[in-house]
Design goal:
Length: 345
Amino acid sequence: MYKTAMLGCGGRARAHADAYRFVKGGKLTAICDMNEELLNKFGDDFSISSRYTDLDEMLEKEKPDVLHIVTAPLFRDSNERIRYPLMQQASDHGVPAAIVEKPIAIESEGWKQISGLAEETKTKFVVNTQLNFHPQNLELKQDVAEGKIGEIKFIDATALSTPVDQGPHVLQLVSSYIDNSRPVRVLGQISGGANLDSAQPSPQYAAARVQYENGLHVSYAFGTAIAPFGSDDPKAFFTKRVFVVGTDGYVHWRFNSWERSTREGGYEGGPLNYGQQDVVAQGNLTNAVFDWLDDEKKVHPTHLKQSLVEFNLLLGIYYSGITNEIIELPFDPPDGLMDSLRERL
């Protein structure tokens, strides 16, 4: 049994912990949060007695095999960027693996720091884009992999929330359907500056046309003004979807439903319970970390270097929107990108 620990005891961390109902081979044994009220409530609710308010102390005493870093990218009280420092702490302590909440970064400087860490660390970092492991998504991806929709010709992918909030989920989903083919160029547009000073700074809206190295073109849209809801419920603010069109059919995964059309099976579809799918997916993501620890060849689908490629694409969308130019990928994003976005938007 692998020993795991949790940094952060907020609402998102509860989803990580609840998923241990579906986790095999590991147990959550220690938690850490500077907010003692949150820490103790979380510990009582999940029957975890080893509780810490200092990360270094927890890592030194507990020596977990896997650390869940379930924190916002910014420290709310001071606006300090904390994603990279926390990952560096885990690496310095020699934690074998860590699951980092998305987004992996929020701007070019953080992306560069974490890219440097990825080249030197021995810690197996993965990013918590768990949609990859939703049971219905896994089934549809298997259909595509087996050629049931023929050759992929086009993908349309959207999310209702901001590009940096739910965009990482959508970008990873597209990667998973095309065997992680790398993006090579992007033409993007951005709009809306209301969220640039939030806990996850981002334009409100973005749209892009992306070409991948396998020749495929993908259309992306983020934000309530331009992304389809895919639901009759206006409260479904975090709706995400991916629509994969092939020569012989299509698959369409949404927040609350799915569709498939193939020559062999005709049209099929039905509703989804996102909550039920998501808790299983979170457990599957954690199990896949254990698999990677067991076998170096079983690289996690959302491993850090792959996620950094996808975030570089997101930064490319931003920069294309600022410069009105096609951006060749990968690219070296300039420092001060957030200031440029504020000036432009």
